[in-house]
Design brief:
With about 250 residues, the protein is an alpha/beta fold. It has one domain: Alpha/Beta hydrolase fold, catalytic domain (Rossmann fold, 3-Layer(aba) Sandwich), CATH 3.40.50.1820. The protein is built from eleven helices and eight strands. The chain has an eight-stranded mixed β-sheet with strand order 1-2-4-3-5-6-7-8, sandwiched between helices. α2 packs across α3 and α4 packs antiparallel against α5.
């Protein structure tokens, strides 16, 4: 499906139980819908599932301007309004997690889950992108998903990216949203890999300290822990969503 929001043609999927609570899933940098479907598909019988290619990725067109994370959050608000979604459960990985944090600091979110999501200036910047791709390729069962991420990951892909997406990446990497994170009030689950080379696990506990109602679940995995430990993560998500259901 395609919607035109903020001069972007956004490609998305909307499936599951249309009358149930909506879960919105946001992928990481250089990725697309496919990287979040392993989670979305596990909740399609109990929830409405919305997954999109973020602007500039997958089958969605690029923004016309050099968007910040907050611009992406505002885009998400308009996109979700167009779907009559006002108080979503939001899950985000990495770049998608940073957008989710920014969104939850400004708009209503019933429950928030972030996987390896940066919120401070990323000191290592772009050099670790190739490491992330190599790690993804080693995870059983997601080799094909790693290929999906290849186009924009790594220094070569950074050089080959359009000037607009390159500027957006630099802005994202250098933007500190700590002050915004402190405004988040919804129950928040923070899932992290002990061996995450992109965003150290210490950041998970700092993030927990900044959010009023948050907890950390740590697995001995990488930046792709949510896929490496999919079954345990799904179980934790079921418990978290059930325990916070009104």
């Amino acid at each position: 499906m395609i919607k035109h929001i903020k001069d972007v043609d956004v490609h998305y999927e909307d499936y599951g139980d249309e009358h149930a609570e909506p879960i919105v899933l946001l992928h990481g940098w250089g990725q697309n819908i496919e990287m979040m479907t392993p989670i979305g598909n596990r909740f399609k019988d109990t929830n409405r599932i919305v997954i999109l290619d973020l602007p500039g990725f997958g089958a969605s067109t690029e923004p016309n301007d050099d968007w910040t994370v907050y611009d992406y959050a505002d885009f998400m608000k308009e996109f979700l309004d167009s779907l009559n979604i006002e108080n979503p459960i939001m899950l985000g990985h990495s770049f998608g997690g940073k957008i989710s944090l920014a969104y939850a600091s400004k708009y209503n979110v019933k429950k928030l889950v972030v996987f390896g999501s940066p919120f401070r200036k990323e000191l290592e910047k772009l050099s670790l992108k190739t490491k992330l791709l190599k790690t993804a390729k080693k995870i059983p069962g997601i080799g094909s998903l790693a290929e999906v991420a290849k186009k924009h990951m790594g220094s070569t892909d950074y050089k080959n990216a359009s000037p607009k997406m390159r500027a957006i990446l630099v802005s994202t990497v250098n933007l500190d949203i700590t002050d915004s994170v402190k405004k988040i009030k919804c129950p928040t689950l923070i899932v992290w890999g002990t061996n995450d080379e992109a965003v150290p696990v210490a950041d998970a506990y700092e993030l927990e300290s900044l959010i009023a109602d948050a907890g950390v679940v740590e697995y001995p995995g990488s930046h792709y822990t949510y896929l490496e430990f999919l079954e345990p993560v799904i179980n934790v998500l079921h418990n978290f969503l059930d325990n916070t259901k009104e």
